[in-house]
Amino acid sequence: MTTNPMFNANPAFLDGTVKKLFIDGCWVEAKAGGTFDTTNPATGEILARVSEGGAQDIDLAVAAARRAFEGPWRNFKPDQRQNLILALAELVSKHYEELCILDTLDMGMPIGRSIQNRERVVGSIRYYAAQAMSIHGETIENSLDGEFFTCALKEPIGVVGAIIPWNSPLFATVKKISVALAAGCTLVLKPAEEAPLTPLRIGELCLEAGIPPGVVNIVSGFGETAGARLAAHPDVDKIAFTGSHFTGQKIIRASAGSVKSLSMELGGKSPNIIFADANLDKAVPGAAMATFNNAGQICCAGTRMFVERSIYDEFVARVAEFGSRMRVGNGLDINTQMGPLVSAEQLARVTEYLTIGAQEGAEAVTGGQRLTEGAYGKGNFVAPTVFRNVTDNMRIAREEIFGPVISAIPFDTIDDVVSRANDTIFGLGGGVWTTDVGKAHKVARRIRSGTVWVNAYNVMDPSVPFGGYKMSGYGREGGIHHVDEYLQTKALILNTD
Ligand code: NAI
Ligand code: MG
Q1: Can you spell out the DSSP letters for 340-406?
Q2: Looking at the domain that runs over 21-266+472-492, which CATH code has it been given?
Q3: What are the tens digits of pLDDT across the range 11-28?
Q4: Would you list the domain boundaries of the chain?
């Protein structure tokens, strides 16, 4: 591996001090005094020691969020909330490079890609700023006896608990904060234990932006302790969760005691369908990056690559060649196309699936193993992998691997591929590659998932809703639907006689 880091591996935020919890506008240590280390998955080096928030800290953060919600925050007008969100957008833009570096250091994302997404990330924050001034209910004509005025008001849902994963810490954090602020809610955010640094740095930016104490709280800690307490907390009105469906199910159960409102953005095993009439020069890199992007650690990754039989051999060979040529390495190197997996656990999970695939009879055309030579050995690197001879019932074709592993499956007809593409517990993403518009439309309509891309993959826009069918969850992020999920509807029936 050649590393030729172009980016500063020592941002000022990593100053050797213990990173504290952000509660009620202050930086505080965990009540129980615990800390945990967060490491660089490319090198194994410890980056920082982070306060380990537990149930007590979550309780303090929820109490602060409640006080802010019942207190000064409820008097903030939409334009004031908009200004705060815009101030946050400006600060994220100003410090964008540093935030990307923290993401790369903490979870491995190649900076060559993230650094190009400034407008997408900042634009998404600005989108919610606009939404803050677009909240409206409705007046309703009634048939009541007498003079009545009836309307439906929109109100913020209250205190929101946001639990996020590690695969895109910057983007996940700013989305969850901006939508809550737009709706007038307050928030307790629990970052993933694998990647808490960027969320904590954004806490500093919230303070600098002038967001009042208690409106945004960030409590780093583990899922089974801090996360579980947040999910069960009786004074939390809503949980917004992004992560695995297993954890999603636990959160649904934990929240049942207080009947919370929930939004669940869970995993996937998305089909990416390549027809013989596709523009293959575009479909090859498109299909490869549909999975290899972020080392496959993307919820909507197009990991089930269905290829029309007449081009199966050629197409699979070309995608494998693309994978074999990818520059895998430390994400701080601007030339790196694929970084490490986030953690030793994730490395173990993914390599286990590589073994399972081989045992099930699939053939790794490229990759198929961990990379251990030289500097690779210190990090969690896996080679971009393309399996052929995959059948629908193999575990590598059914389970979310969350690594750079493509399962290539041949198909014959539209009906055949649609029913097999839908034969999954998930329904998050999907792709169709063809030059026939009618075919594209027909297939896209029949795929049961929250997003379908045609001749593209992983393209997102803040105005366009994103979310799952089936066990990929419910609720939508992005678009006008997103803010609505942070609002309550109140009927007002006013006797005007
Ligand atoms: P996870 O779903 O367990 O973690 C996501 C978040 O949930 C983290 O903040 C974690 O601390 C929290 N959490 C964990 N247990 C909790 C509990 N009992 N109550 C409340 N919060 C809890 O994901 P993990 O363990 O990091 O990854 C395991 C697998 O999950 C991956 O291999 C991948 O297949 C899948 N995954 C999918 C994601 C997606 O966006 N679709 C994101 C992350 C993981
Ligand atoms: Mg976990």
Answers
A1: --S-HHHHHHHHHHHHHHHHHT-EEEE--SB--TGGGGGTT-B--EEEES--TTSHHHHS---SSEE
A2: 3.40.605.10
A3: 999 999 999 999 999 999
A4: 21-266+472-492, 271-461
